[in-house]
Design goal:
Blueprint lengths: L38 H12 L5 E3 L4 E2 L11 H14 L5 E5 L7 E5 L1 H10 L3 E5 L4 H15 L4 H13 L4 H8 L3 H13 L2 H7 L7 H11 L2 H11 L2 H4 L3 H22 L6 E6 L6 E6 L4 E6 L3 H10 L1 H15 L3
Parallel strand pairs: 2-4, 3-5
Antiparallel strand pairs: 1-5, 3-4, 6-7, 7-8
């Protein structure tokens, strides 16, 4: 079947990986502002790209998921609202797909995953625009469409970023896809690299949880003991029975309570401390002593030379010490 090539007039330069748009809450500062597009521009750009293009009806069973996942869970309430709206009024906005690279009869969705899911559930054709896109362009369009619609949570955006990098994309592509700067990307990757995947999967999309709370959880699980507790607790039936939007706060608060309780139980070290400074202030000496263990710390400019001298004279100094004990004992 021969059709007009949809998106033929698409200017892919306007979706270049070299541009890094920004959105409120994920902003750039300084000179970077001169080279970025606003999130409103992206939304308008997507709308214009879809206008006037050939829309076809496709069998949803012939469309595969994107090569890079961007969602941790679906919002059941929002999905049901979308399903009812399409059931009553039909699909008003087409999805974007690309031809499959492995099967000439199949496609891969670029954006419109939920509309595709609705079509499958209703067993009706899905309205789509078909465009030949490479992986990089596909990833950027997918990410920017999600950014424009503001329907991905912080952790889903971080999850998407991690998946893009794992698929071989560069950080430039990731920043363009998510409309973020280098600092925000670093924070996102810091979270998904510190919080194990099973815990993230158990927490789900966490739609109401923003960057700062995730950074706080990251800081908690950097402690090996708390990481073990988090992994165990997030896998319990009791935890997984909670509503998804309550799980993050429950885990975060549980770890904080555990940390406080552990600190309260931890016995205080019985140690005595002494310090000394040389008359010329070039050497500082600090000693913390327990019953059978003494820690000595030397600091300042003479620390290294004096420690070398001390090591070289240990035999003589110890002999003097033993001699002083004999004298004190009257031997």
């Amino acid at each position: 079947m021969s059709r007009e090539n949809p998106f033929a007039k698409l200017d892919m330069a306007s979706i270049s990986a070299n541009q890094t748009p920004t959105k409120a809450g994920y902003g750039m500062t300084g000179a970077a502002k001169t080279v970025v597009r606003s999130i409103e521009d992206m939304a308008e750009n997507t709308k214009k790209l879809m206008e006037g293009e050939v829309i076809v009806d496709l069998d949803p069973r012939l469309i595969d998921a994107s090569f890079v996942a961007d969602r941790l869970s679906d919002d059941d309430e929002e999905f049901q609202e979308l399903l009812q709206a399409i059931k009553v009024s039909g699909q008003t906005t087409p999805i974007l797909v690309r031809p499959s690279s492995t099967d000439a009869k199949r496609y891969m969705v670029v954006f419109g995953h939920r509309r595709l899911k609705v079509a499958r559930e209703l067993a009706v054709p899905v309205k789509a625009v078909v465009k030949k896109l490479d992986d990089i362009t596909s990833a950027i369009v997918q990410g920017q469409e999600n950014a424009a619609r503001s329907n991905l949570s912080f952790i889903e955006r971080a999850y998407f970023a991690q998946n893009l990098l794992a698929s071989g994309m560069t950080k430039d592509v990731v920043r363009s896809s998510l409309a973020i700067d280098e600092a925000m990307l670093s924070k996102m990757l810091g979270v998904v690299e510190a919080v194990p995947a099973p815990i993230i999967q158990a927490l789900g999309a966490s739609k109401k949880i923003g960057r700062d709370r995730w950074l706080s959880l990251r800081q908690l699980v950097l402690a090996p003991a708390l990481l073990k507790v988090a992994a165990e607790y997030s896998g319990t039936a009791e935890f997984l029975e909670l509503d998804e939007d309550k799980r993050f706060d429950e885990l975060h608060d549980y770890l904080k309570r555990y940390k406080v309780k552990s600190a309260a139980k931890r016995p205080k070290a019985s140690a005595t401390g002494k310090d000394w400074t040389s008359s010329d202030s070039s050497l500082n000496f600090v000693m913390n002593a327990k019953s059978k263990k003494v820690a000595i710390e030397l600091s300042n400019v003479e620390a290294k030379p004096f420690s070398d001298w001390l090591s070289a004279h240990m035999d003589r100094l110890y002999d003097e010490y033993k001699g002083s004990k004999h004298e004190n004992n009257g031997d």
